[in-house]
Recover the amino acids of this structure.
């Protein structure tokens, strides 16, 4: 319901902005034929609104309504012309620089940067003094002063698109540069072109009014800027003749407002992350549906997950990503969770720390950790629980570490949040933890970007162990690493586990790895735990067809291979087993 | 004897590092040579940063080497300049990229991607175009072709997208396909299908495939020959069965021992040291990590040795048989 409302609101943004702007365009186009001559002295100066002059008269006796209406024409014409020109020049320079790169890029970027550091207003004033007067002067001046910033935006976009494989693929297919720019790059920038045009028009209207108000425009023409200039000259403020400048001011504000609305609507339409996230399914039902059998944790288990269901709210309605999953992890055990993308394995892992995104919620079941019901923890209790009892190692160590803090500071942050150690003792502990994971203690003063992928992941593990948790959730910690680095890291994890006694929930798609690492393995398929068994038994005695399919999908190094089904059969089997695409909003590739 | 289908000879590539005024360059490929025959799959294996993808880009002519030659059917392609020569090369050498989510343009349909390749290389036109597009989709196992041709990339699964990418490469009827980790972004259950598809192409059409991967297990299943890259240099090359079952170079052994395979995978120690010194400028790049390295390894680049037919190893210890037998990989 709320989602529909938000979508309606988004539509309304575009609708309100568009209607307003269209109204102004209509007035600018046909309005001048219906009003008096704006330059003619029609009546007494400084007359307040009356039936003869609806908006009153100026300090010289001209009709304010006529001036406002006629002023819209040139103001908007120049605004849109400059908006289009700035977008065109900026896009042309930016895309050429970004796509061709090297020397062309160097030269164009240097030019752009020179234009950027010259302050726009003085440049416009100087140019304005030399060029012949008239509306074209304003267009030239504003385009000259405004294109550079836009070129930067388009260059950045072209650079990021140029690095994309589909551009390289088009080159390999034999496409020409021109065709790649016009058919491969530009269509991908349609939203940028649209929002830039609107943003540039907004800039143009504002800058134009500003220049004209200062008297730097053509004071003989009728535009909103010159209206304000004359209002100032005729001491409208001193004589309290508010009607002279208020209508123009309101028009400028409304045009700005409509353009801003449109630009924001376009941004939201093309950038899904700006859209308000759909609201998560109600979590209030959790305890209402708790059945007696899910109350009981398995005796001796460190973690007991009972009939856990997690749903994401999507545009198409709620989608169940984790479906009635129950599992137990014993103290010191390595439990492996295997599944393909979209199977819900990462969602399940983050749910153990209640780290679900805002669009997801636990709709059923419980998570019992050492007697505590994690699903029922208050926000303060949850803060204390996270990391000190259960911690997590993420797939991407770079995004898990804060790039602007040294390692020592990150350890201090974590340690201080749970008990307020002094900085000196945090650093001492950080050194100890770093050497524990096989890194030099001196790295405590290093920045994340100075480390290799494998070293970062070691830091991630050291951070996860900082508060001596009893369970560490590891979500694909080695997927981005080379096999040699992966093995080094895993051997270290096993060694630390034996020494410190924590349990591990290891999430990965790599089943052969899990079979070597884990004590027990659970196979997750479309949110359901289809098989749980010891690694040893799964290796030889997998029961569920999906487990067998996964096992057969990995080629082995050994000489003898079990006969495998033909590829077509394999793929049909999986596509039938796979959840629909909509069911994997949290899935990672 | 006819020349090999595709041959690379002493390819070098370095990239500038450091700031705007710095002249420092980092070598990514050093004297890489290999050849690829018709109907053959050559696997190029190595860790990230070993130069695999740079080599793929050189061979796809997306980048130019600092020195060295690329020969297609015995003809030096780097010597020929201009649009027509480039188009002719692209009509014979095609590439399948790693990430099928990035290699198809999101604004174009499946049909558009295939039609462009067909039209650009004059393989089909007019009414014939649609028929060829459907035939191509069917040949990579995408049916019903009429429906799939109209779809946009985001409406396809990862495996389907990679099949479209293969179909696009096939559209120009190439002699060589460079496949840069074509399955690493796919779910495991769809990987094997794509690999089988590639293997079928070599058997049915005689296409030569350069298969770039970090996964030794898939290399073993797919490739006729293997080439192992370390820090931009070829360290070992030979028939797949020779290289993977009787590896000679210490780095190949290290790679093999790190493949998760078997119960004892985590219990066997890695046959490598932690590098404490940077790689010697003149010697073997692997020396700092090599458990068997001696003085020679830090002082001079080892030459290639041929322990068996077609088996090349670049290691000093190989010449003096200094590698103890117990270092061999048990799996």
């Amino acid at each position: 319901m709320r989602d529909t409302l938000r979508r309606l609101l988004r539509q309304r943004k575009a609708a309100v902005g568009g209607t307003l702007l269209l109204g102004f365009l209509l007035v600018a186009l046909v309005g001048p034929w219906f009003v008096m001559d704006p330059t003619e002295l029609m009546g007494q100066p400084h007359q307040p609104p009356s039936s003869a002059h609806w908006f009153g008269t100026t300090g010289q006796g001209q009709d304010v309504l006529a001036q406002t209406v006629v002023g819209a024409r040139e103001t908007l014409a120049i605004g849109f012309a400059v908006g289009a020109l700035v977008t065109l020049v900026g896009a042309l320079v930016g895309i050429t620089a970004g796509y061709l790169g090297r020397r062309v890029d160097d030269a164009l970027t240097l030019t752009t940067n020179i234009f950027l550091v010259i302050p726009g207003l003085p440049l416009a004033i100087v140019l304005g003094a030399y060029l012949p007067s008239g509306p074209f002067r304003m267009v030239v001046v504003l385009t000259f002063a405004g294109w550079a910033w836009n070129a930067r935006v388009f260059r950045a976009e072209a650079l990021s698109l140029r690095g994309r494989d589909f551009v390289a693929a088009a080159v390999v297919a034999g496409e020409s540069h021109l065709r790649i720019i016009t058919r491969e790059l530009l269509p991908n920038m349609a939203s940028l072109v649209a929002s830039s045009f609107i943003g540039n028009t907004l800039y143009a209207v504002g800058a134009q009014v500003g220049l004209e108000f200062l008297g730097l425009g053509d004071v003989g023409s009728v535009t909103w800027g010159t209206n304000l200039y004359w209002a100032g000259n005729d001491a409208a403020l001193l004589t309290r003749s508010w009607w002279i400048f208020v209508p123009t001011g309101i028009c400028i504000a409304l045009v700005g407002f409509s353009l801003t609305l449109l630009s924001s609507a376009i941004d939201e339409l093309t950038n899904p992350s700006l859209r308000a996230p759909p609201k998560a399914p109600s979590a209030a039902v959790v305890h209402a549906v708790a059945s007696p059998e899910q109350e009981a944790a398995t005796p001796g288990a460190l973690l007991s997950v009972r009939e856990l269901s997690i749903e994401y709210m999507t545009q198409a309605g709620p989608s169940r990503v984790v479906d009635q999953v129950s599992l137990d992890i014993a103290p010191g055990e390595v439990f492996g969770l295997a599944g393909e993308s979209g199977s819900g394995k990462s969602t399940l892992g983050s749910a153990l720390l209640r780290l679900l995104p805002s669009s997801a919620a636990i709709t059923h079941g419980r998570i019992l950790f050492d007697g505590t019901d994690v699903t029922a923890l208050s926000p303060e209790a949850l803060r204390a629980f996270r990391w000190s009892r259960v911690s997590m190692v993420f797939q991407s160590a770079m995004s898990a570490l804060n790039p602007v803090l040294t390692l020592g500071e990150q350890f201090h942050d974590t340690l201080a949040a749970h008990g307020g150690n002094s900085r000196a003792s945090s650093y001492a502990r950080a050194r100890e933890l770093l050497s524990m994971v096989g890194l030099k203690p001196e790295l405590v003063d290093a920045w994340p970007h100075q480390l290799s992928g494998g070293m970062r992941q070691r830091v991630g593990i050291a951070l996860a162990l900082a508060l001596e948790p009893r369970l560490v959730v590891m979500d694909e910690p080695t997927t981005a690493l080379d096999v040699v680095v992966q093995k080094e890291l895993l051997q270290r994890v096993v060694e630390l586990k034996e020494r410190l006694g924590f349990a591990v929930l290891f999430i990965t798609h790599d089943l052969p790895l899990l079979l070597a690492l884990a004590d027990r393995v659970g196979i997750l398929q479309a949110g359901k735990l289809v098989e749980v068994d010891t690694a040893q038994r799964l290796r030889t005695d997998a029961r569920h067809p999906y487990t067998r399919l996964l096992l057969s999908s990995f080629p082995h190094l050994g000489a003898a291979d079990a006969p495998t089904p033909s590829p077509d059969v394999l793929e049909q089997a999986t596509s039938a087993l796979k959840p629909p695409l909509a069911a994997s909003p949290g899935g990672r590739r | 004897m006819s020349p090999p289908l595709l041959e690379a000879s002493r390819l070098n590539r370095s990239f500038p590092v450091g700031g705007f005024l710095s002249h420092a360059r980092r070598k990514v490929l050093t004297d890489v040579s290999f050849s690829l025959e018709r109907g053959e799959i050559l696997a190029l294996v190595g860790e990230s940063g070993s130069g695999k993808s740079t080599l793929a880009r050189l061979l796809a002519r997306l980048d130019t080497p600092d020195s060295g030659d690329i020969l297609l059917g015995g003809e030096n392609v780097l010597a020929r300049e201009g649009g027509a020569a480039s188009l002719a090369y692209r009509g014979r050498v095609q590439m399948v990229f790693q990430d099928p989510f990035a290699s198809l343009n999101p604004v174009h349909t499946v049909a558009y991607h295939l039609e462009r390749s067909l039209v650009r290389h004059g393989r089909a036109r007019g009414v014939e175009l649609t028929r060829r597009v459907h035939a191509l989709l069917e040949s990579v196992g995408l049916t019903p072709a009429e429906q799939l041709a109209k779809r946009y990339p985001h409406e396809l699964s990862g495996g389907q997208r990679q099949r479209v990418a293969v179909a696009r490469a096939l559209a120009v009827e190439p002699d060589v396909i460079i496949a840069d980790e074509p399955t690493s972004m796919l779910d495991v259950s769809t990987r094997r299908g794509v690999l089988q598809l590639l293997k079928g192409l070599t058997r049915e059409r005689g296409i030569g495939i350069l298969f770039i991967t970090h996964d030794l297990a898939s290399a073993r299943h797919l490739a006729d020959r293997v080439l192992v890259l370390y820090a931009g240099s070829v360290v070992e090359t030979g028939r797949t069965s020779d290289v993977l079952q009787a590896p000679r170079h210490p780095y190949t052994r290290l790679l093999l021992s790190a493949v998760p395979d078997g119960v004892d995978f985590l219990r066997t120690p890695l046959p490598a040291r932690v590098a404490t010194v940077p790689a010697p400028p003149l010697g073997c790049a692997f020396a700092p990590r090599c458990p068997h390295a001696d003085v020679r390894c830090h002082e001079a680049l080892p030459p290639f040795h041929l322990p068996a037919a077609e088996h090349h190893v670049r290691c000093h210890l190989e010449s003096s048989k200094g590698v103890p037998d117990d270092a061999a990989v048990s799996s």
Summary: Chain A touches chain B through 59 residues (CB under 8 Å). The first strand of chain A starts at residue 303 and ends at 314. Residues 284-290, 559-589 of chain A have pLDDT under 50 and may be disordered.
